[in-house]
Amino acid sequence: MDLDVRRLRVLHEVALRGSVTAAAAALHVTPSAVSQQLVQLSREAGHELVERAGRGIVLTPAGQVLASHAREVLGAVEQAVAGLAALRDGVSGTVRVGAFASAAGALVARRPPAPGRSTQSWTYG
Amino acid sequence: MDLDVRRLRVLHEVALRGSVTAAAAALHVTPSAVSQQLVQLSREAGHELVERAGRGIVLTPAGQVLASHAREVLGAVEQAVAGLAALRDGVSGTVRVGAFASAAGALVARRPPAPGRSTQSWTYG
DNA sequence: CATTTTTACGACCTTCGTAACGATG
DNA sequence: CATCGTTACGAAGGTCGTAAAAATG
């Protein structure tokens, strides 16, 4: 039981758009896939996350709580991806820090890695 | 490409323990599985994350950066799980907020949900 | 009856362990 | 040569789409 990112994204999208169909369209999958992921996620979470309301669905309180946490997780993942992209573009990194020290410093508004330390993580982007 | 939580946990464990074998033991899987997950993760990340150093391995700078972000993601997931557990134990939730208002207030050291709002997330545990 | 969600089912993909191999001190 | 990491490969499990069914206004 690991609360997979993919499933959390599904829940987030359902919460955001208010329907399985709309979430499926946004995620470029079928409503069937979204529905199945929700079943699996609620099994993992130990709570019913959505319930039918008329022709659509609404999130249960547990679903709203988990959706809120899902946004945190997705944000952290997004930051990780941004960190890798920054690394790829040479904003950070061992070798290029010296070459781009001043430019990087202005860009990130943070101190560059201390000399002698081969790597250091700081705010990028 | 979604930077799966399971794979980030593998990287974190490798970073923490300094070897594939030790990480595999901690995760109750074989070194083969850890090695394959690292290959897949580095493919997704677009960076080499580890490199052989003598008989063991060391993280590359990119690996260290991603491992740092992995800790953020894992922390967020952990909070989500804690949130669900708290919900299951009745610390939060729509119906029980009124009944346990003062106890919950003391327990969480935060204001309880405003009356009239059916749900609200705040610090628990 | 149109729309939305869910379920049954099969094809495809992923992941793991075993076993063999390669690398290193 | 003992130990650590990687690769080949097959079995087991997971995920998705199609199609059919169920629910609702």
What can you see in these coordinates?
- The structure is a homodimer of 125-residue chains.
- In chain A, strands 1-2 form a two-stranded antiparallel ribbon.
- The longest helix of chain A is centred in the middle third of the chain and has 28 residues, at 61-88.
- The first copy, chain A, has 6 helices and 2 strands, in the order αααββααα.
- The model of chain A is unreliable at 93-125 (pLDDT under 50).
- Chain A is mostly helical and 125 residues long.
- Chain A has a domain at 5-80: Arc Repressor Mutant, subunit A (Orthogonal Bundle), CATH 1.10.10.
- Chain A has helices at residues 5-17, 20-27, 31-45, 61-88, 96-99, 101-108, and strands at residues 50-53, 56-59.
- Chain A binds chain B through residues 2-6, 8-9, 45-47, 61-62, 64-66, 68-70, 72-73, 75-77, 79-81, 83-84, 87-88, 92-94, 118-119, 121, and chain B through 2-6, 8-9, 45-47, 61-62, 64-66, 68-70, 72-73, 75-77, 79-81, 83-84, 87-88, 92-94, 118-119, 121.
- Chain A binds a DNA duplex (25 and 25 nucleotides) through helix 3.
- Chains A, B: Residues 1-60 form the HTH lysR-type domain.
- Chains A, B: Belongs to the LysR transcriptional regulatory family.
- Chains A, B: Keywords: DNA-binding, Transcription, Transcription regulation.
- Chains A, B: This is HTH lysR-type domain-containing protein.
